[in-house]
Amino acid sequence: MVDIKVPDLPESVDEATLLSWEKSTGDFVDRDEKIADVETDKVVLEVFATSEGCLNILKEEGAILKRGDIVCQISANEGSAAPTKKPSEPDEPATDTDNGEASALSPSVRKALNEMNVDSSNVTGTGKGGRITVADVKQAASNVNAPPATPPTTSASTANPPVRTSTKYSFDEDNIQRVPMTQIRRRISERLKEVQNTAAILTTFNEVNMQPVMDLRAKYKDRFLEEHGVKLGFMSFFVKATVEALKKFPQVNASIDERDLIYHQRFHIGIAVDSPRGLVVPVVRDADIKSFAEIESGIRELAGRAQEAKLQYEELIGGTFTITNGGVFGSMLSTPIINAPQSGILGMHSIQQRPVAENGEVVIRPMMYIALSYDHRIVDGRGAVQFLVSIKESLEDPSQLLLQI
To answer: What is the CATH number of the domain that holds 235?
Structure first.
């Protein structure tokens, strides 16, 4: 038996949660095949088979894991070759071999096929070499039992209302569902409460006329996309404006380490991203030396990996300042909370057409409220207000970003 242990956890991570299994006990697995996902408070780690053989699961989904824990075992004796039908096993149905597939089915897959009354010829294998897994059988069964895309118009189609179900956790008699918090949600809770208890957080506000940026994007967006292969969004302008403001007010790019102030000479900008696992903040490193295209493509790549839970631990640490955009969800105004140990966070909000005064006249402009939450232990009110004014001026005259003035 070969023991498969918890993947190496980052130095600052003490425990993890077994998020999901790709295989079931009894399944045949190949060497280096992915078999499970393990969730930490920051990233999802993949578990791979270190040898081929039959899988024996020791830890169930949702189990809390420590360093060195054994999550499963692989029987190398049974898995030294592709599994074949044993003499004691019943003959497979003719439909299992009619399609001419050379790969044999594992005992657990044959059992699942029989229990779910699924024909193997209707199952698409996702395992190595197209091998059918138990998960594939379950997916095929769900497709067979799924309701048609256009329900029939007969009264039978509406006779029974839909039943609320949960795949893992059921509702009790009071219609309450108790679900354990994920590692990332627990860590978010701990960090936010820690920030509230230790930092002196204040928030200052301003508003930005986004017309100049919108005009610039409209003028060059097609050429930008053709030249760089990525769309020109708002975020690159905000990152550039933030970097220039941080250069003018280095205390906003600082942090506290016990009784010392740490002033960062590099500009690693964290971008808050909503993912299926919760809020994560991947970092765009050295944003001061990156072009608009590099920033846009970097953010796009990080956000995509966040959605797929494939961010690396190194991509989530080391940020010196954070930007969060609640405007994509319709937020008009908010007071973002800083991402410790950083001393500031910039909040973007939705763009609204509002009347404003220009040269003694009332005109309609696309306006955005922006907010800076800052740690008053490091940043004074004057510096915070001027920092936000600097961002406003850069965005209302984007040529300043090119000239770095």
So the answer is: 3.30.559.10
